[in-house]
Amino acid sequence: MTQVLEIDRLKKGFSLHHLDKDIPAFEDVSFSVAAGEFVLLKGANGAGKSTLLRTLYRSYLPLAGEIRFHSSHGVIDLARAADVDVAHLRRTEIGFVTQFLTARPRVRAEAIVAEPLRLAGWEPEAALDAARKALATFGVKPDLWAAYPTTFSGGEQQKVNLARALILPQKLLMLDEPTASLDANARRALVARLKELKDQGTAMIGVFHHPDDVMHLIDRIVDLTPDAVPQEERDDVAL
Ligand SMILES: Nc1ncnc2c1ncn2[C@@H]1O[C@H](COP(=O)(O)OP(=O)(O)O)[C@@H](O)[C@H]1O
Ligand SMILES: [Mg+2]
Predict the structure, then answer these.
(1) Residue 172's domain is classified under what CATH number?
(2) Does residue 17 sit within a domain?
(3) Which of 10, 35, 86, 233 could join 65 in a cystine, given CB atoms 3.0 to 4.6 angstroms apart?
């Protein structure tokens, strides 16, 4: 199996200087993800799921541990990589999708979705065509394709967000409760797209509000509840 990510004794917490207090988020987290594997993160509110995903995406620096990412340029420890290298990997190999679209004023929905393709060197018309197809897949009505998502409903914004985040297959994809504001059709479209990406070899780590949606895609469950068994193999878990 081709490894994509090896997480080794990772630890993160926050210092609240004004309260002179340290809040632990998680510690001693170790697991790995191979190409085409899907890892479900679970744990109660505040268990550190979002913090772990953000640390893997290097929005946060960990306090200890290693995050060995097998990039197309070789193995790089994301816990220590330079910001410029992290920025490059985010454009090319590592994706992240949350429940929120950061809609920019006066950028059309189709342009937001086409942007990753444009950055990857696609011609403008081909990128727009693919963007419109992706918007249609997630159930965004054609009238809205050339409109500005700043005025869209939460659910519509999330569909644009997903269309953009999932338009290009990436080596590693993190998902933080992407279905929270979606209707049933969009949830089905998302799950179908995740299945395609998995079959193409994308390694995925995700937190899901409705894990039943993705149970058939899951290879492993990592539980961040303190004192939980560190890894549960799918065979051992009642799904
Ligand atoms: N930026 C931050 N500053 C301080 N504390 C934070 C920050 N982000 C998260 N925390 C704390 O870290 C813990 C884990 O939070 P989080 O990762 O959001 O949990 P989950 O996603 O599992 O609900 C919580 O106690 C939360 O209050
Ligand atoms: Mg969270």
Answers:
(1) 3.40.50.300
(2) no
(3) 10
Predicted TM-score (pTM) of the model is: 0.91
Residue closest by Cα to atom 11 of ligand 1: 25
| 86, part of any domain | yes
Nearest ligand, CA of residue 51?
A: 1
Q: Which ligand is nearest to the CA of 52?
A: 1
- What is the distance in A from the centroid of ligand 1 to the CA of 46? 6
Nearest CA residue ID for atom 18, ligand 1 = 50
Considering its fold, how many domains does the chain have in total? 1
**Which DSSP string do the residues of 111-154 spell out, in sequence order?**
HHHHHHHHHTT--HHHHHHHHHHHHHHTT--GGGTTS-GGGS-H
Ligand that comes closest to the CA of residue 225:
1
* pLDDT tens for each residue of the chain, 239 residues long: 899 999 999 999 999 888 888 899 999 999 999 999 999 999 999 999 999 999 999 999 999 999 999 999 999 999 999 999 999 999 889 999 987 777 788 999 999 999 999 999 999 999 999 999 999 999 999 999 999 999 999 899 999 999 999 999 999 999 999 988 889 999 999 999 999 999 999 999 999 988 999 999 999 999 998 776 455 544 444 44
Q: Cβ(162)–Cβ(140) under 8 Å? A: no
Domain that holds residue 193: 3-11+22-236
Whether residue 107 is contained in a domain is answered as yes
Count Cα neighbours of 60 within 13 Å in the Cβ-side half-sphere.
21
Position 87 in a domain: yes
Residue nearest to atom 24 of ligand 1 (CA): 46
